[in-house]
From TrEMBL:
Location in the cell: Cell membrane
Gene Ontology CC annotations of this record: plasma membrane
A GO BP entry: transmembrane transport
Protein family per UniProt: Belongs to the binding-protein-dependent transport system permease family.
Gene3D superfamilies linked: MetI-like
Cross-referenced SUPFAM superfamilies: MetI-like (SSF161098)
Transmembrane segments: 41-63, 115-140, 146-170, 182-200, 242-267, 290-314
Name of protein: ABC transporter permease
Signal peptide, first to last residue: none
Residues covered by region (Disordered): 1-22
Record key words, sorted: Cell membrane, Membrane, Transmembrane, Transmembrane helix, Transport
ABC transmembrane type-1 domain mapped to chain residues: 111-311
Length: 323
């Protein structure tokens, strides 16, 4: 009997390794998105915040008039009530103020001014606080003690007092400049100097933990400069809590701007922010023109509440102890 020659079976091809998921796929399956979609209050707050921010940014195209342009303002149209109130004008949805400006347009432009001041002030505070917090936590010793004592002293001065001091210094140094030229700088510097301590203390505490980990020791042994270790290695691992502070401080910065403008340290009536509009409306509140203060105040309250709710959600979502 002839031997039957059999060929060995061909080897099965190796299974292809699945490609790692992309950024969009990781974000879609993340706990952060699931937490956001599971909270109706958070989604409503996000929608309101985004809608109001877009309305402020697109005020040039949305607003019927430009309240900053004197050519578009007519004093004969002053103190009209809202459209649905008896005596209102159909041209003005929310009525007009004492200068004849359309209040709806003034709120949109004022919201944009308040947002710009708040964002710039928070950026200054975050930059200053993060830098000082990294130095204090990483270097320690006398540098840490000096920065923290300065922070303790700064906490004794509220933003209003800092703004008044800065405003007085600017007026004495730059006597030829009026309030219109200096008000923006006074506001953003005051907000920045008032809020940096929270960032510094948060970053300092996280840095003191991170600098004792193995990857930092390895970088030191490799001869990496200290400033590069702080920026490239430590900072990305301690920046998480700052995002929560940024969200909450944005609302606080807008409230601070409104408070300072209400007290007369803020922007002039020719460049109204929400705080300026509230201050102007307060002068006419008891004479019956309630809408001048009511609608800017309501806008400020709604926006601050929405941003605070987002900050509370972000704080809980990024807290591993609550997962």
């Amino acid at each position: 009997m002839a031997d039957i020659m059999t060929t060995p079976p061909a080897p099965e091809p190796a299974a292809a390794k699945p490609s790692p998921p992309g950024r969009y796929a990781r974000f879609r399956d993340s706990d952060l998105l699931a937490s956001f979609l599971s909270s109706k209050l958070t989604m409503v707050s996000a929608f309101i915040s985004v809608a109001m921010i877009l309305g402020a940014l697109l005020a040039t195209w949305i607003a019927p008039t430009n309240p900053f342009d004197p050519a578009s303002v007519d004093l004969m149209n002053s103190l009209y009530p809202p459209r649905w109130v008896e005596g209102g004008d159909t041209r003005f949805l929310l009525g007009t103020d004492n200068q004849g400006r359309d209040l709806w347009s003034a709120i949109l432009y004022g919201m944009r001014v308040s947002l710009i001041i708040g964002i710039v002030g928070v950026i200054i505070a975050a930059t200053l606080g993060i830098g000082l917090g990294l130095l204090a936590g990483y270097l320690g010793g006398r540098v840490d003690a000096l920065i923290m004592r300065v922070a303790d002293i700064q906490l004794t001065f509220p933003a209003i007092l800092i703004a008044l001091v800065i405003d007085g210094v600017v007026r004495s140094v730059f006597q030829g400049l009026g309030r219109e030229q200096t008000a923006f700088s006074v506001l953003v510097i005051s907000i920045g100097l008032s809020f940096w301590v929270q960032y510094a203390r948060t970053i300092r505490g996280s840095t003191m933990v991170e600098k004792n980990k193995d990857y930092v020791h390895a970088a030191r042994l490799m001869g990496v400069p200290a400033w590069l270790i702080m920026i490239r290695h430590v900072l990305p691992n301690v920046i998480g809590p700052v995002l929560v502070i940024l969200t909450i401080n944005l609302a606080l910065a807008i409230i601070t701007e409104a408070t300072l403008s209400f007290l007369g340290v803020g922007l002039p009536p020719t460049q109204p922010s929400l705080g300026t509009l509230i201050r102007i409306g307060n002068d006419f509140l008891f004479s019956g023109e309630w809408w001048i203060v009511a609608f800017p105040g309501l806008t400020l309250a709604i926006f601050v509440l929405a941003v605070n709710l987002l900050g509370d959600w972000l704080r809980d979502a990024l807290n591993p102890k609550l997962r």
